[in-house]
Amino acid sequence: MLRKSIVSLAVTSSLVFGMTAAYAAANPSDHAFDNKIVKRIKVDNIYKTIELLSKEPRVAGTPAEDKAVEYIAKQFKSFGYNTEIQPFEMFQYTSPTTVELSVDGFVDTDFAPDSFTYGANGDVTGELVYIGLGGPDDVDGLDLSGKVALVKRGSYTFAEKILNAAGAGAEAVILFNNTSGGINGTLGEPSDGYVPAVAIGRDLGEQLADRLAAGEGLTAHVKIAGAKVERQTSHNVIATKKPNPNKDTGQIVIVGAHHDSVEGGPGANDDASGTATVLELARVLSNMPIDTELRFITFGAEENGLVGSYAYAESLTEDEIDRIVAQFQMDMVGSRDAGELIMYTVDGEKNIVTDLGAAAGARLSGVVNYGQEGRSDHVPFAELGIPSALFIHAPVEPWYHTPEDTIDKISKDKLQQVAEIVGAAVYQIARPDTPALKNARVAPKPVDYEFEERELE
Description:
CATH architecture of the largest domain: 3-Layer(aba) Sandwich
Strand content: 15-25%
Order of helices and strands: EHHHHEEEHEHEEHEEEHEHHEEHEHEHE
Number of strands: 16
Oligomer: single chain
Structural class: alpha/beta
CATH topology of the largest domain: Aminopeptidase
CATH superfamily of the largest domain: Zn peptidases
């Protein structure tokens, strides 16, 4: 459902360790400041908040999300923060009740078709025509009126392929994968230009394409019914703590997570874990001396395509954008069944957030790698030029986006680790004894990087 999907990469551990360990050894006084944060973190607070939030799914725009928003805002206010609930409009998609595909000549074949989020309803029977990747050149000059277009995944977004086919007259689209497995796809947003579209696996798609290439005529029937798109309201919760005016560097640091979950998923790890950790760090830092403005934010509608974080980013003034020096995003930070902690940036390059996180990790718990990934609420900030990173365990747990994402799968050790690292990193910027960030040397820059592939899921 997200606007970007980027192959994940991570820096080789030995290089990161050499960089961060050297920094930690050269700055032993930072341990004392770390302890000011670490000793105040109560992991049981985080765990209890996850337990409360994950009693039911918190789908964006529903009463359950509203209840979570009220609770989060109440907690921020109890810590003394100036708290704002920011509403924004969004589209809520209800999955179809019927998704069917049949092709003559494949009588006993179960195509196991999937629909696309924001896809259109319809009941279409027509001649099947293969149009390759479904790009502008693939449909140029074609008359697909009354036909069903067969399209291969790749090069273009699902929405572009469907709109291109529909623009040439196609009344339905069958899109097949270019790799193993199924397609869990989104069209990003609603459009009146969509026609009914289904997704199928690579092997069956290639069989259809091969038979068409051999000159065989095929007729396909596509039926999608029950899908709904409704305009609803979701919310971000923003808690702000300003520094003493006499010691204000003018800097702003944002610490975020998303509070919504998927339909049918209690979302204990995704992302009650991040939300609960944001709340605990807000509590810990509420009475700490700072020279930097702190903003703790929980975003709505992340699962709908980062809608809440985009809405917040779009509300920022140019002055605020210039003053935000770091954005820390925590998503899925507590599962016992997930992999190690990774810091992901949108472009895969190190920045002040990964420097601070790596240095804090070296001081507190060991190596923290970083890599490239663009599927969470750090993306809108990166697109504004704000240094940002996603803190997440990868690979993700088997319970991701399922009803089994429950409190019993949560690891207090992982929660503690992330809270300590992010808390120490944030305080290294915010504490009054540090210079303005543009003058601070956070970590030495390594000369060379060696990358290894690391999948998020």
